[in-house]
Specification:
The protein has 189 residues and is α+β, with helices and mostly antiparallel strands. The protein has six helices and six strands; from the N terminus they run βαββαβββαααα. The protein has one domain. The strands form two sheets. A four-stranded mixed β-sheet has the order 1-4-6-5, with helices on one face. α1 packs across α3, α3 packs antiparallel against α4 and α5 packs antiparallel against α6.
Length: 189
Amino acid sequence: MGETSMWAERTVKNTLTDSDTLKIKPFSFSGIGFDIRTFPVLKTYIDSGKIKVEYDSAKNGMAEYDYKTNTIIMGFRFASTYTETALVVHECVHAVYDVVSQKMTTAISEAIAYIVQCQYVYANAGPGKRLSSKDPKKDSVFQKAWMIAAAIQEGKTFTKLDKSNLIAAVSEHPYYAKNATADAGFDGV
Protein backbone atom coordinates (compact mmCIF):
# COMPACT_ATOMS: atom_id res chain seq x y z
CA MET A 1 0.00 0.00 0.00
CA GLY A 2 1.33 3.41 -0.93
CA GLU A 3 1.83 6.37 1.33
CA THR A 4 1.57 10.06 0.63
CA SER A 5 5.01 11.44 -0.10
CA MET A 6 5.76 15.11 -0.54
CA TRP A 7 9.03 14.13 -2.25
CA ALA A 8 7.46 11.74 -4.75
CA GLU A 9 4.78 14.32 -5.54
CA ARG A 10 7.40 17.01 -6.01
CA THR A 11 9.35 14.69 -8.32
CA VAL A 12 6.30 14.13 -10.50
CA LYS A 13 5.29 17.80 -10.59
CA ASN A 14 8.83 18.94 -11.40
CA THR A 15 9.06 16.35 -14.18
CA LEU A 16 5.82 17.59 -15.73
CA THR A 17 7.20 21.08 -16.31
CA ASP A 18 10.93 20.43 -16.63
CA SER A 19 12.71 21.70 -19.76
CA ASP A 20 14.06 18.18 -20.39
CA THR A 21 10.48 16.86 -20.55
CA LEU A 22 9.47 19.61 -22.96
CA LYS A 23 11.84 18.09 -25.55
CA ILE A 24 9.25 15.34 -26.18
CA LYS A 25 7.63 15.93 -29.57
CA PRO A 26 3.93 15.48 -30.37
CA PHE A 27 2.75 12.52 -32.42
CA SER A 28 -0.28 10.42 -33.26
CA PHE A 29 -0.52 6.67 -32.80
CA SER A 30 -3.54 4.65 -33.94
CA GLY A 31 -5.52 7.87 -34.28
CA ILE A 32 -4.74 9.05 -30.75
CA GLY A 33 -2.61 12.13 -30.38
CA PHE A 34 -0.09 12.94 -27.69
CA ASP A 35 1.25 16.42 -26.99
CA ILE A 36 3.60 17.27 -24.12
CA ARG A 37 1.70 20.54 -23.61
CA THR A 38 -0.83 18.45 -21.66
CA PHE A 39 1.68 17.84 -18.87
CA PRO A 40 1.45 21.30 -17.20
CA VAL A 41 -2.34 20.81 -17.16
CA LEU A 42 -1.82 17.45 -15.45
CA LYS A 43 0.23 19.26 -12.80
CA THR A 44 -2.84 21.35 -11.94
CA TYR A 45 -4.78 18.12 -11.34
CA ILE A 46 -2.10 17.02 -8.88
CA ASP A 47 -2.07 20.45 -7.22
CA SER A 48 -5.85 20.28 -6.76
CA GLY A 49 -5.72 16.71 -5.38
CA LYS A 50 -7.70 15.20 -8.26
CA ILE A 51 -4.67 13.05 -9.05
CA LYS A 52 -2.63 11.74 -6.15
CA VAL A 53 1.00 10.70 -5.99
CA GLU A 54 2.11 8.01 -3.56
CA TYR A 55 5.34 6.27 -2.70
CA ASP A 56 5.26 2.49 -2.27
CA SER A 57 8.55 0.78 -1.38
CA ALA A 58 7.10 -2.54 -2.60
CA LYS A 59 7.26 -1.13 -6.16
CA ASN A 60 11.05 -1.35 -5.79
CA GLY A 61 12.04 1.29 -8.36
CA MET A 62 9.02 0.72 -10.60
CA ALA A 63 5.91 2.88 -11.00
CA GLU A 64 2.31 2.61 -12.13
CA TYR A 65 -0.79 4.68 -12.67
CA ASP A 66 -3.97 3.39 -11.04
CA TYR A 67 -6.93 4.83 -12.98
CA LYS A 68 -9.41 3.49 -10.39
CA THR A 69 -7.93 5.65 -7.64
CA ASN A 70 -6.41 8.35 -9.90
CA THR A 71 -3.01 7.74 -8.32
CA ILE A 72 0.54 7.69 -9.63
CA ILE A 73 2.33 5.14 -7.46
CA MET A 74 6.11 5.34 -7.43
CA GLY A 75 8.68 2.91 -6.11
CA PHE A 76 11.11 5.79 -5.53
CA ARG A 77 10.79 9.26 -4.03
CA PHE A 78 13.38 10.97 -6.23
CA ALA A 79 14.11 10.43 -9.90
CA SER A 80 17.90 10.56 -9.98
CA THR A 81 18.47 9.11 -13.48
CA TYR A 82 17.03 9.63 -16.94
CA THR A 83 15.61 6.11 -16.70
CA GLU A 84 13.66 6.92 -13.51
CA THR A 85 12.46 10.26 -14.84
CA ALA A 86 11.37 8.58 -18.07
CA LEU A 87 9.35 6.12 -15.99
CA VAL A 88 7.59 9.05 -14.30
CA VAL A 89 6.86 10.46 -17.76
CA HIS A 90 5.46 7.06 -18.86
CA GLU A 91 2.99 6.93 -15.97
CA CYS A 92 1.98 10.56 -16.48
CA VAL A 93 0.96 9.69 -20.04
CA HIS A 94 -1.60 7.26 -18.60
CA ALA A 95 -2.83 9.93 -16.18
CA VAL A 96 -3.32 12.43 -19.03
CA TYR A 97 -5.51 9.98 -20.92
CA ASP A 98 -7.45 9.19 -17.75
CA VAL A 99 -8.18 12.90 -17.22
CA VAL A 100 -9.89 13.04 -20.62
CA SER A 101 -11.44 9.53 -20.41
CA GLN A 102 -9.68 8.51 -23.64
CA LYS A 103 -10.90 5.15 -24.91
CA MET A 104 -8.16 2.82 -26.15
CA THR A 105 -6.84 -0.67 -25.58
CA THR A 106 -4.20 -1.44 -23.01
CA ALA A 107 -1.77 -2.22 -25.85
CA ILE A 108 -2.28 1.20 -27.46
CA SER A 109 -2.03 2.96 -24.09
CA GLU A 110 1.22 1.22 -23.27
CA ALA A 111 2.62 1.71 -26.77
CA ILE A 112 2.07 5.48 -26.56
CA ALA A 113 3.51 5.65 -23.04
CA TYR A 114 6.61 3.69 -24.09
CA ILE A 115 7.14 5.96 -27.09
CA VAL A 116 6.97 9.02 -24.84
CA GLN A 117 9.26 7.35 -22.29
CA CYS A 118 11.80 6.54 -25.00
CA GLN A 119 11.55 10.02 -26.50
CA TYR A 120 12.46 11.47 -23.12
CA VAL A 121 15.64 9.40 -22.89
CA TYR A 122 16.52 9.86 -26.57
CA ALA A 123 16.15 13.65 -26.36
CA ASN A 124 18.15 13.97 -23.14
CA ALA A 125 20.72 11.15 -23.07
CA GLY A 126 21.19 10.68 -26.81
CA PRO A 127 20.54 7.96 -29.35
CA GLY A 128 23.13 5.59 -27.89
CA LYS A 129 21.35 5.21 -24.53
CA ARG A 130 18.39 2.98 -25.48
CA LEU A 131 16.23 1.76 -22.62
CA SER A 132 16.51 -2.00 -22.25
CA SER A 133 15.57 -4.99 -20.16
CA LYS A 134 17.19 -8.37 -19.54
CA ASP A 135 13.78 -9.94 -20.20
CA PRO A 136 13.59 -10.43 -24.01
CA LYS A 137 9.86 -9.70 -24.18
CA LYS A 138 10.22 -6.48 -22.21
CA ASP A 139 13.28 -5.51 -24.22
CA SER A 140 11.37 -6.02 -27.46
CA VAL A 141 8.93 -3.30 -26.36
CA PHE A 142 11.79 -0.92 -25.57
CA GLN A 143 13.52 -1.68 -28.87
CA LYS A 144 10.41 -1.07 -30.98
CA ALA A 145 9.31 2.00 -29.03
CA TRP A 146 12.85 3.38 -29.28
CA MET A 147 12.78 3.09 -33.09
CA ILE A 148 9.55 5.08 -33.24
CA ALA A 149 10.76 7.62 -30.65
CA ALA A 150 13.98 8.15 -32.63
CA ALA A 151 11.98 8.75 -35.82
CA ILE A 152 9.78 11.31 -34.05
CA GLN A 153 12.74 13.07 -32.45
CA GLU A 154 14.55 13.20 -35.81
CA GLY A 155 11.50 14.60 -37.61
CA LYS A 156 10.92 11.41 -39.60
CA THR A 157 7.78 9.34 -39.93
CA PHE A 158 7.22 5.86 -38.62
CA THR A 159 5.44 3.20 -40.61
CA LYS A 160 2.32 1.13 -40.06
CA LEU A 161 4.64 -1.85 -39.71
CA ASP A 162 6.57 -0.06 -36.94
CA LYS A 163 3.25 0.57 -35.19
CA SER A 164 2.07 -3.02 -35.65
CA ASN A 165 5.37 -4.39 -34.38
CA LEU A 166 5.18 -2.27 -31.23
CA ILE A 167 1.58 -3.28 -30.52
CA ALA A 168 2.54 -6.95 -31.01
CA ALA A 169 5.51 -6.57 -28.66
CA VAL A 170 3.36 -4.88 -25.98
CA SER A 171 0.82 -7.70 -26.40
CA GLU A 172 3.55 -10.23 -25.51
CA HIS A 173 4.99 -8.21 -22.60
CA PRO A 174 4.46 -10.21 -19.37
CA TYR A 175 2.68 -7.29 -17.64
CA TYR A 176 0.19 -6.62 -20.45
CA ALA A 177 -0.30 -9.92 -22.33
CA LYS A 178 -3.51 -10.88 -20.51
CA ASN A 179 -5.21 -7.52 -21.03
CA ALA A 180 -3.60 -6.17 -24.22
CA THR A 181 -6.85 -6.06 -26.19
CA ALA A 182 -9.01 -4.96 -23.26
CA ASP A 183 -10.05 -1.38 -22.69
CA ALA A 184 -7.38 0.56 -20.79
CA GLY A 185 -10.09 1.69 -18.35
CA PHE A 186 -9.52 5.43 -18.40
CA ASP A 187 -12.70 6.72 -16.79
CA GLY A 188 -11.95 10.33 -15.92
CA VAL A 189 -10.88 11.87 -12.64
